[in-house]
Each structure stands twice: as structure tokens, then as C-alpha cells.
Fold this protein.
Amino acid sequence: MEPLSFQEYICALDPTTLPRILRVCAGVYFQGSVYEISGNECCLSTGNLLKVMAVVLQKVICEDTVTRQTTELPPTFKGKQDYPPHCPTGLFQPAAPSRPDTTLRTPFLAGGRRQGLTLLQAMEQWDRWPQPLLCPAIGPHTLLLHPVYEVHAAMHLRRDIVKIPSTLEVDVEDVTEEAQHVHFARPLLLSEVLRMEKVLPAQAEILEGPTGPAIFESAWVSRLQRGQRLQLHSRSRAQWVLASAPSSGRHFLLTSAYEGRFRRRPRQFMGVQELVAILRPSQRLHVVVTQDCEGWGADVPPLIVGDRLEVQGLQGNGPETRLLCHRHGGEEEEGEELLLPLNLGGSFVEERCDSKKYRLAELLEQQPLPCEVRVVAADPGLAQDALGTLPSLRLEACLDQPVLVGSFCQEPAQGFQISPMWLDFSILLSDEPVHPPATSTPRCRVEELTEAFYYRLLAQLPGSPAPPPPRPPKRARVGTRPGGQHPLTPRSSLSGSCPAPPLPPLPALPQPNTPKPPGKQRPSSDAGEAPGTSQAAMPSLPGTEHDSTEHDYETADDNIQKIIHKMQTIFPF
């Protein structure tokens, strides 16, 4: 088939023969060009193949042959209602031929003159060249109709169907017969493969690696780059335990395959509310007071460091709800029952005598989360167990996610699990054989999390509180700084801080160290001046009275400046 313009080919295409495969020959985009089609970047180069899947009439350009004006008609065009009654509503009639009609036009004219044609019927009679028509609903002149189609086509290595206008200025040729063996590879996301269990196992090549912030600190995640080949073995469900190390600020995900041994650590509680939150109906909690707590009158006696309490349950309803505890007495003292208000403070530590070593599954069966543990025996299947070096570990919640079990083609013995909900990227499946993983293939049993991903997981847990909205800025009143501070008010006098102590009195200015000559005193300027406060007269040497007085004032001024500087250091304004 000879090359045709894309518009000519689509207008003459019989929809019943779809799909058709086209090859791009030449046109405006010769040598290839990146441009936008229906909001997606697309590149058409000479030699590219298109698999046309569907053709949809988008609009019709109606051209007046006399005025050359154009009008866009929707496919549902029905015309106006104010035309002569003898003409059917919105129907097209063939125009009188200016020359003898060809065989091609003669069926068209016979059908059109009998009852007229709708817009869609006129488009069905369109055969590469527009036919002259009349439509009183549009105007009195002869019209030419130019359809514009939206072509839905598949391209190699494109995930989505490309929507191309038929008016694209490019030449194509039909190569359907000779390209029957061509496979249009479609990239897939891992989340799509997770729903296509029948395609597994399969080999895959990464087209685009993961985007966005990292989630794991593991080395294998950094290898998920463009061009890396993977083996996807199966679909599975993974059980993880979210854990954190309070002493180091590190966070982890433990798989159910972790083989380390744990020992439970005593839990710490700040206030009665935390005791209530951890209380279970079938379990009794024994704690020891670690901080003195003042009582509330005669009803609530004070708690003293070392008191041993057995938490038994709640009593009362509404605001009168109390926590019933039994305080054990000493050797010669009897115990007593305490009803503690829920808003009482205090500090408690769990009293526990348990030296048993637990597997992870045993621990989760017997201990509700969260709980404090310590790894006393590292996982023997790991070359380096990061959990074994931590003094304590807080197990926070259990997570259940669908995963893909995979490995690297170059290192089939190195296995991993990928959750597409957390780590999604595009791949291209291939038909190459997949080697089944060995039963002893080690997998990452402990994943260290980045801090950002840890808090993202916390926010996704059921019952987790939403972060509070940011506070609006305070309005600055007239004569105040932002935040309500007066320009002349010291920072220490702001609301919520301790008031500044009163300023100390200024010390007396230093007096000149001029010796007093005997027998000569300056008379007092005030008759009531206290004795001993008058100053001695200075010797009247020529040219020295002014210099001596100026020196005294400079010395006093320096001392004042030092005092003010000291005060500003203590009380910054």
C-alpha cells in the first residue's frame, strides 16, 4: 500500500477491519519529535509502528464553498428548527453536480435525494474526498464536510493507549499483513503485576526505578535502577512487626521469619491514664512507684517511691471513674485498696520476673502490643543482626501487606519481598525462563526504615490520631512586636515565663582620687549636707583645672557604660 496522509487513511478506514498496524513514513515530525497528544508526551519517529485499536468521530468541520467560512459541528448535530417544512430536520441533501457524476457519487445522490442524510450517514458515505452537500439549517451555499477523528492506538513501551487526532500531519502506510508477528510490549507497574497472578513467575526489566523519598535503608533497594533485571517468583502475603529503638531513634520492620530470641522488659508508665490504656480484662498488672506523687486530700493518699501496686480494674462511670489498685503493705503492715483518679500523675514501672526467651510468634501471642523487649539471641541466619546490639526495642504494631517475592537475575540466591503499596515502579515482562528459588534462599528478615517512612506508617495505622493543624499566627497589637511582646518589654517577662527580678539600684559614681590639701576645703553647696560628703578643693594650677575635671567625667562615664552593659547582658531588652 502506498503511503497516505494520516487523515486520508483514517477517513477511508473500515472500522470492521480493526485492529490495523501502521508504519510512520514521513511528515512534519520527520526524524522524530517529542510533542503532546491528549495531555501525554509522545514521540513519533520515522519507522514507528502504531496499532490502531479504535476510531471515534470527534467533530466535523463544515466549510462554506462560497464564503470559505468554517463551522465545527458535533457528531450529534440536528440543525435549527426555523427552516422550510419540506426539508427534514438537520438533514443533508446532495448538491447539484457541476459535471457528470462518477459511479462513486451516484449511490450517494440516489439515497440523499430520497430522504436526506444525517451527519453520521453523510460521514459514512465519505470516501477520501468530501462530497458537496446542502443543509438549509446551516446556510444556502454548498458545504464540504471534513471529519476529525480521535484515533486510539497502542505503541511499543507505552503503558496507556495513545489518543491521536486524525489531522496529525504525518504519512503512514498499512503493514498489517507483514507485521503480524510484532508484539507491542506494554510496561506494567508492580501494583498491576500483583493483580495478575497468572503471569508469574516471570523475568522483568526495570524501565523506571522508584521515585520519591527512600523507604528502606537496605542496600538491595538502591539497586532497583533502570535496566536492572529481576525474577518475580510469586505473590504472597507478608506479616511484619513495626519496631523502634528509643535509645538510638532507629526504626525497623521485622518479618515473621525472624529467628532471633526476645526477652520481655518492664514497661514504664507516666500517669494513671497510661495504666488504664494498657489494662486487659484477663490480666492483672503489677507495678512499682518510681516517683513520689502527692495525694488529693483524704480520699487519695500520696504515693511513695517503692510502693507496690496491683492494678485490678476500673470502678464507676463518667467523671467519677476511678482505677482500683491494691497497695501491698510491708512485713508488719496490711495492704489497702486505693481508688486513683484517672488524671493523677505519677511514674510507674512494671514488676516482672520473667527470664524466658521468646520467639517472635510466641511473643505476639502472649503479649499485646506495644511492648518493650530486648533481643538476647541474634538471628543465626543473618550475617549481621542489627537488633542484637540494641539495649531495648519497642514492638509497636503488626502489619499485613500483599507482596511480590523476587530476586536479582545476577544473584538468584539473594531474595527480597516488595510491597507495591510502598514501592511501585514500571517494569517490562519478558518470556525468558525463571529459575525457581532455592528453599534456603535467604530473604531480608529485618528492614531498617527511614524516619520519614516510619512516621508515614504510623499515620496509616488504625486509630492513629491525625496531626494537629498549624496554629494561626498571633495578631500583633499596636505598639507590640509579633507575638504580643512590647518593644520595651524584656524577653524574660513574656507570658508563660518567670517574671524578671527588680533591677538593682545603681551604685554611686566613683569620686576623683585627688589628694586633699590640708587646711583648704570647698564650702558646702547645701547647708544641710551631711558631714564628710563635701569634696576637697583642687589645687589651682594654671591650665590644669579643665583637664582634671574632664578626666573625672570621662572616668565616671566609662564606669556607667560598664554597668549598663552588664545589666543588658543579664536583662536583655
